[in-house]
């Protein structure tokens, strides 16, 4: 089972803002968020400096990943916090743990 599509959540330095996205390359996508946060700040993640990966899920099928992304985006903040805490209890930055 090859998981090559990901739903991910990034946050800012103070863990006050969450951005949920989908990608087939988490490292590249985080680099894009970081570049935008340092330069143009055109995207939501760039504007709020959401460059710290704190959660991700892998999927084989891109349609499943899209469905999950849409589901998570509808959740209230408390439910998102619980999901993140169950996956990553200390909300540690996972940027260097995914390839």
From TrEMBL:
Membrane spanning stretches: none
Q: Which PROSITE patterns match?
A: GIY_YIG
InterPro entries registered for this protein in UniProt: GIY-YIG_endonuc, GIY-YIG_endonuc_sf, UPF0213_domain
Q: What Pfam families does its record include? A: GIY-YIG (PF01541)
Domain of life assignment: Bacteria
Q: Which PANTHER family match?
A: BSL5627 PROTEIN (PTHR34477:SF5), UPF0213 PROTEIN YHBQ (PTHR34477)
Q: Which family does it belong to?
A: Belongs to the UPF0213 family.
Supply the name of the protein: GIY-YIG nuclease family protein
Q: Please report the organism this UniProt entry assigns to the protein.
A: Winogradskyella pelagia
Q: What is the lineage of its organism?
A: Bacteria, Pseudomonadati, Bacteroidota, Flavobacteriia, Flavobacteriales
